[in-house]
Amino acid sequence: MNNPFDDESGSYLVLTNAERQHSLWPADIDIPAGWSTVFGAATRAACLAHVEENWTDMRPASLVAATNGA
């Protein structure tokens, strides 16, 4: 069986968690607890473009808050 995360022709979602981290997720797999959909379902390329445009700070939100408060 092929890995659904590597399917170039598959349909994907972009997920985020409470730390504002992003994940590319196959649309036909259940979303894990703690994550929510912010984009898609769409092509893998469209989802990757969304992540590149919107996840500009790779640090978790808690680290950003701690750094800004220091």
From TrEMBL:
- What is the protein name stated in its UniProt record? MbtH family protein
Secretion signal, residue range per the UniProt entry: none
Please provide the Gene Ontology terms (biological process) for this protein.
siderophore biosynthetic process
Show the PANTHER family listed in the entry.
ENTEROBACTIN BIOSYNTHESIS PROTEIN YBDZ (PTHR38444:SF1)
Species source reads: Streptomyces liliiviolaceus
Q: Pfam families from the entry? A: MbtH
Q: Name one GO cellular component term.
A: cytosol
Where is each MbtH-like domain found? Answer: 3-53
What domain of life?
Bacteria
